[in-house]
Design brief:
Keywords: ATP-binding, Nucleotide-binding. InterPro entries: AAA+_ATPase, AAA_domain_protein, ATPase_AAA_core. Belongs to the AAA ATPase family. Highly divergent. By secondary structure, the chain is of the alpha/beta class. It folds into four domains: 139 residues, P-loop containing nucleotide triphosphate hydrolases (Rossmann fold); 70 residues, Helicase, Ruva Protein, domain 3 (Orthogonal Bundle), CATH 1.10.8; 157 residues, Rossmann fold (3-Layer(aba) Sandwich), CATH 3.40.50.300; 70 residues. Helix 4 links the parallel strand 5 and strand 6. The model has no long low-confidence stretch (mean pLDDT 85).
């Protein structure tokens, strides 16, 4: 793939070399047209372009006619010009289906032969594949989407047009240019314009909101769903995971050019395993909130279909959509149910696993994957290879300090009160062996009774009574999960110890 400047240089070289056919693969025809206009000025040559407006327009200031209406087929006009001109370039920006052997592609091939014989150049802008015989006749240029520098320049130009309404700092523009990776020029401008109309003013506080609207630019897929979360999400415990995320944040948001220069890779994601109810699924929302990224949930199990090839197509459709809406956090809950060794026994299961692992390894989109698992014994070993997940974390039952933090958090959020140290010591001891969700639900049960009139006020004794009525997960089940986690993953807690 080449960026805009590299594409312009190659196109100029091919035209000067008299290459008869150049195919530029991109959906951004206007960028190719802009490059050709600059080449026309620099080389002082004659050039025309044809677009879906059914007009042939001269790109050369010295030509008399600015535009000429033609019927639905411009090829007769092109051939007539090629017969009586030399060193003429014609940009065909609107084409029919090019991947098949048809009357139209044969006419294009015939026009390319004529360009070769008369010393002219036909430039075709195409999104789809090109018929093999036609492809062999020319040279290809792949134009990638705007680079970081181009996105930054677009954002700066937009801000300069609305100085009273757009007040991004340099840091805000840099962050926005990073978050809008994967969008075309037109999509970036449309997103900025619609955001300005909706908000009235755009400052640094609007950056994440603008980027969060990227999913509106792409056709949604049924198995990838946006997930909302509180803007400032508070999570008790998991200090080891939080510290790791804080270290990796700058790497994730770093420019790709900087990472490539030092052979570094953006963090791919984390695999979270552990005791049910201890915050594995909640961690996905915590990470999205901490990094201020949109969150999507991917239901891999729903891609399976009974028709031949349909499962693979739906999987690729979902992966393409995820790449398009990046940067984002992608949450896959209970990944073992969709990619377990059992589901891999069929050919379709094997292909889906391979498709997913290849994407996980090779995709350059900034997608941070948060996969949770309860029964890791059934996960394929290929999933644990370094480079697919950046790290695996084991989330155990909360220790004394984490239980204290959880009680304090939920008492403040649900009961709007704080307990004294003596009450806290008693409550921490009383909920030994509880998961985070056990503690949360018990405190919220007390809050419900207070809010709806069953209790006059919330006391430590009432919370302790709710703790006494709670039945935590069995010790035998926890022991088996913990044994695996101690051998195969880092602890998500700050102390690095599993369990109590």
């Amino acid at each position: 793939m080449s960026d805009y400047q590299a594409m312009s240089t190659m196109l100029s070289d091919y035209i000067r070399a008299g290459v008869p056919l150049v195919v530029i693969r991109t959906a951004e025809r206007h960028r190719v047209e802009r490059a050709l206009r600059d080449i026309v000025k620099a080389l002082n040559i004659h050039a025309f372009c044809y677009t879906d407006s059914k007009q042939i327009e001269s790109l050369s200031p010295q030509d008399e006619a600015a535009a000429k209406d033609v019927d639905s087929d411009p090829l007769p006009f092109i051939r007539e010009r090629f017969r009586r001109s030399r060193h003429l370039t014609f940009l065909l920006g609107d084409t029919r289906r090019l991947e098949q052997d048809s009357l139209y592609t044969r006419e294009l091939l015939s026009t390319a032969y004529l360009a070769r014989d008369t010393g002219n150049t036909l430039v075709i802008v195409a999104v789809e594949n090109v018929w093999q015989r036609l492809a062999r006749f020319g040279l290809f240029i792949d134009l990638e989407l705007p680079t970081f520098e181009e996105r930054h320049a677009l954002i700066g130009e937009f801000a300069a047009r609305f100085p009273d309404k757009v007040t991004w700092s340099d840091g805000g523009m840099t962050q926005l240019a990073t978050l809008l990776r994967g969008l075309s020029e037109v999509q970036i401008i449309n997103l900025l314009r619609s955001s300005l109309v909706a908000r009235g003013v755009l400052g640094d506080d609007a950056v994440t909101g603008i980027a969060g609207n990227k999913d509106r630019l792409f056709t949604a897929v049924s198995n990838v769903m946006p997930v909302s979360y509180p803007e400032h999400l508070e999570v008790a415990g998991l200090d080891g995971l939080k510290a790791w995320l804080d270290r990796k944040r700058n790497v994730f948001f770093a420019r790709q050019e900087l990472l490539d220069r030092h052979c570094l890779q953006s963090p791919r994601g984390v695999l979270l395993m552990g005791v049910p109810g201890c915050g594995k699924s909640f961690s996905a929302k915590m990470i999205a909130s901490r990094w201020q990224l949109p969150l999507f949930r991917f239901d891999i199990g729903s891609v399976y279909n009974k028709y031949v090839g349909e499962t693979e197509r739906r999987m690729q459709e979902a992966l393409d959509y995820i790449d398009n809406v990046a940067p984002c956090v992608l949450w896959i809950d209970e990944i073992e149910k969709a990619l377990s060794s059992g589901s891999g026994e069929s050919d379709v299961g094997n292909r889906i696993l391979g498709q997913f692992l290849f994407w996980l390894q090779e995709s350059r989109a900034k997608v941070f994957l948060v996969a949770t698992a309860n029964d890791v014994q059934h996960l394929p070993p290929e999933l644990f290879r370094k480079g697919r997940f950046s790290e695996s974390f084991f989330i155990d039952l909360p220790d004394d300090g984490e239980r204290r933090a959880a009680i304090s958090l939920y008492a403040r959020l649900a009961l709007h009160r704080r307990f004294d140290e003596a009450d806290m010591d008693r409550l921490v001891e009383r909920c030994r062996g509880f998961s985070y969700s056990d503690i949360e639900q018990a405190i919220k049960d007390v809050a419900e009774r207070v809010v709806f009139g069953d209790l006059l006020e919330a006391t430590a004794a009432q919370v302790e009574a709710c703790f006494a009525a709670t039945i935590p997960i069995s010790a035998e089940r926890i022991r088996a999960i913990r044994e695996w986690g101690m051998k195969n993953a880092q602890s998500a807690s700050s102390g690095g110890q599993h369990g109590e």
